Amino acid sequence: MSPSDDLAHQATAAPEHTDAFWMPFTANRQFKKTPRLLASAEGMYYRSTDGREILDGTGGLWCCNAGHARPRIVKAIQEQAVTLDFAPTFQMGHPLPFVLAERLKAIAPEGLDHVFFTNSGSESVDTALKIALAYHRARGEGQRTRLIGREKGYHGVGFGGIAVGGMVNNRKFFGPMLPGVDHLRHTLDIARNGFNRGLPKHGIELAEDLERLVQLHDASTIAAVIVEPISGSAGVVLPPEGYLKRLREICDKHGILLIFDEVITGFGRVGKAFAAQRFGVTPDLITTAKGLTNGAVPMGAVFASGRIHDAFMHGPEGAIELFHGYTYSGHPLACAAALATLDTYQEENLFEKAIELGGYWEDAIHALKGLPNVIDIRNFGLIGAVELAAREGAPGSRGYDAFQRAFHEQNLMVRCTGDVLALSPPLILQKEHIDRIFDRLAATIRATA
Ligand SMILES: Cc1ncc(COP(=O)(O)O)c(C=O)c1O
């Protein structure tokens, strides 16, 4: 076997040994007893190493918005790899990140004119938090150091991200994290909003929680608030109607920057390029990753307003304005993948898909109401969540059982977080895929006691 045949074989067959790879966010010992291994993918489907076709209900991990193995993206990566494999972007450059930043600016909410490249959502979040702190300092308000996140928030796994994040298991093992962080209350309220279609009707008043924190800490100490417009990782938590707009107003009143973490909502998930546009609320900074390259090459991007960017552009021209960046910021392969991804989204009008199909999706997911143990259903755009009742004394176990049953018995990939089954399919899906996803999910839920 030639070395490349050998690699192709290794990439598609179950590995002989599974011990050395310490898997992320995984119950390693449990997984390695019954692995779930994907060998290839095309369009709406994965193929597992045991040869089954698995319907992708989660766009990989909320990233493959254009589906899998899209020809333009594949070709762009291949061609870029032979043209320029790597070039630094510290005091050097290559053309593609400049081209890409202009393309991104064109689809971003108005005023978010500048783009800082990272390699992941976590790095985007830490970058945005650092920009927020340095921005206030650059304009003589360096005492604004406090960062505000929200309960149930997920902002990746950097120390900044877990500090402003609000998922207990992601925080409790890692010491004191960043000092000077506080949290808004979360907006999940099943008692009042259970089985609601679209945005929750109740809960706009939760935005006033920011006023409570301003009263406690004083606005002059607060740099920024970071929230996900819709949070995915905590089990799809939606913003109540009017909530984000109110948060924006309170931030404006107190000179606090508003950061939207759009790592999952960016690039068409909710019917516009960004949730900010769908909700008509423009933040000062947006963090992205995932759908930026359709998941094909790791890349993230932070969008910053002209006001923020320009605050740094003072002092001697030879001075570095922001002491921050990554070796792979604007990596050629990632830029090529992102440009081809944007072309694919545009050619196929994929950003509109979540609006076109949103009603059908909503009807299909809400038809699961009444199945055993279903205690809530939430949806917006092409996002969905089915929450199952927790088993007595074993929270998360019913969700996990359903997740693995879906994979092994129904050839359906969903995501489970606690007892919530979350869905975020590629935006190329058709009505027949929606039918198939929910038929299989219904069978899974019925079979999961
Ligand atoms: C809202 C949000 N922010 C940040 C991240 C972290 O992204 P990454 O895993 O690329 O670091 C995620 C990942 O799911 C996310 O959902």
UniProtKB/TrEMBL annotation:
PANTHER family assigned to the protein according to its UniProt record, in alphabetical order: ADENOSYLMETHIONINE-8-AMINO-7-OXONONANOATE AMINOTRANSFERASE (PTHR42684), BETA-ALANINE--PYRUVATE AMINOTRANSFERASE (PTHR42684:SF1)
GO biological process per UniProt: biotin biosynthetic process
Highest classification ranks of the organism: Bacteria, Pseudomonadati, Pseudomonadota, Gammaproteobacteria, Lysobacterales
Family to which the UniProt record says this protein belongs: Belongs to the class-III pyridoxal-phosphate-dependent aminotransferase family.
Keyword Acyltransferase: no
Cofactor(s) listed in the protein's UniProt record: pyridoxal 5'-phosphate
Native source organism of the sequence: Arenimonas metalli CF5-1
Gene3D superfamilies listed in its UniProt record: Aspartate Aminotransferase, domain 1 (3.90.1150.10), Type I PLP-dependent aspartate aminotransferase-like (Major domain) (3.40.640.10)
Record protein name field: Omega amino acid--pyruvate aminotransferase
EC identifiers of the protein: 2.6.1.18
Record-linked PROSITE patterns: AA_TRANSFER_CLASS_3 (PS00600)
Signal peptide: none
One MF annotation (Gene Ontology) recorded for this entry: beta-alanine:pyruvate transaminase activity
UniProt entry keywords in alphabetical sequence: Aminotransferase, Pyridoxal phosphate, Pyruvate, Transferase
Class of the enzyme per the UniProt entry, highest EC level: transferase
Domain of life: Bacteria
